[in-house]
Amino acid sequence: MPKIVTLPGDGIGPEVTAAAVEVLREVAPDVTIEEHAIGGGAYEDHADPFPQRTRDALKDADAALLGTVGGAHDSAWNKLPRHLRPESGLLALRRELGCYANLRPVRVLPGLEHLSPLKAEIARGVDILIVRELLGGIYFDQDRRINGDTAYNTMRYTTPEVERVAKVAFWAAEQRRGRVTSVDKANVLEVSELWRRDVQALRDRDYRSIHLNHEYVDSVAMLVVANPSRYDVILTENLFGDILSDLAAVIPGSLGVMPSASLGDGAGLFEPIHGSAPDIAGQGVANPAAAILSAGMLLRHGLKRPDAANHVDRAVAIALREHPTRDLGGKADTRTFTHAVLEALGTP
Ligand code: NAI
Ligand code: MG
């Protein structure tokens, strides 16, 4: 029986995670769900934002569903030494799971074009999946230094690192529209030359049905907002992916509908991209769509149950249209929205 660890965390985390768990129980009743502590609450109760008991529970888990961590900007947690703050718990969690591929879908769901800052005819139907390498490149390389008026960092990738994340992108494209755009800066960077060569070789060897093209990151930064519909899967390295995924996040227009997944060799980590929203926490009005869609990604990528995942995606789209939450200009609270999703799941 698959086992999922839920980590509700702080602020609206427990509210939106509870909604996602209700949905999971409905579509995957055979799955064992175990709740554990992380973040500021975990520090209060266990003097550690990533307690040993949580760490142990993840060892035999098939996937982890995270809520959010962190307090208000004036929270006492922010005055703690850095390693005891809520965010340290989250970083330790990501390291522990060894998740090297970060997946961020950028979708404008039908009927929600008006939320996008882009023109409706450009936003309509956008459905991109950004696959970002998460454990390598310039953020992690230890060959780094600042000394007087000189500083350097090193961008380094190896073929195995490129191949393992590229496989995730090709695999995802096979479930989608079969197109991968690999993003690099091969006209000036040797690392990008290797990246491009290895991604192309992998495609030619094992993924002949995928249409692969290569584009430069500066050009993609313009095209992804000017003409987002030209993309299916975007595959890129850590630094470029960090910037492009935040840029693309403006397209749907609301944080409350954006899920994410981080995949590695072990259990994957699934979480909404929004924070703990202290301004609305405890009021029962948070939009649980991002958390529920993250549970959908867990079904798709963590448990390899694409039918259940599609079922959840469809139900969320219906609920968003019929019972929009306050962040989307509607009136539905967390309860009403969750009910609407459960109801839509029940109707074939
Ligand atoms: P935030 O994402 O929590 O909130 C930004 C704005 O969006 C707020 O007005 C909030 O009410 C609204 N919002 C966010 N999610 C919503 C939802 N599901 N439904 C309705 N409205 C929603 O970002 P902020 O305020 O910068 O950070 C608050 C705390 O969250 C901080 O402690 C921060 O460190 C933490 N944080 C945690 C993250 C995580 O756990 N992965 C990610 C980002 C921030
Ligand atoms: Mg970032």
From TrEMBL:
UniProt-annotated binding residues for Mg(2+): D218, D242, D246
Which reaction equations make up its catalytic activity? (2R,3S)-3-isopropylmalate + NAD(+) = 4-methyl-2-oxopentanoate + CO2 + NADH
Q: Which residues form the signal peptide?
A: none
Subcellular location(s): the record lists:
Cytoplasm
Query: Ranges for the Isopropylmalate dehydrogenase-like domain?
Result: 3-341
Superkingdom classification of source? Bacteria
**Chain positions recorded as substrate binding sites:** R94, R104, R132, D218
- The keyword Magnesium is assigned to this record: yes
Transmembrane stretches in the record are: none
> Which cofactors does this protein require?
Mg(2+); Mn(2+)
| Assembly | Homodimer.
What functional role does this protein have?
Catalyzes the oxidation of 3-carboxy-2-hydroxy-4-methylpentanoate (3-isopropylmalate) to 3-carboxy-4-methyl-2-oxopentanoate. The product decarboxylates to 4-methyl-2 oxopentanoate.
Indicate the family of this protein.
Answer: Belongs to the isocitrate and isopropylmalate dehydrogenases family. LeuB type 1 subfamily.
What is this protein's name?
3-isopropylmalate dehydrogenase
- Record organism: Deinococcus enclensis
Which gene carries the instructions for this protein? leuB
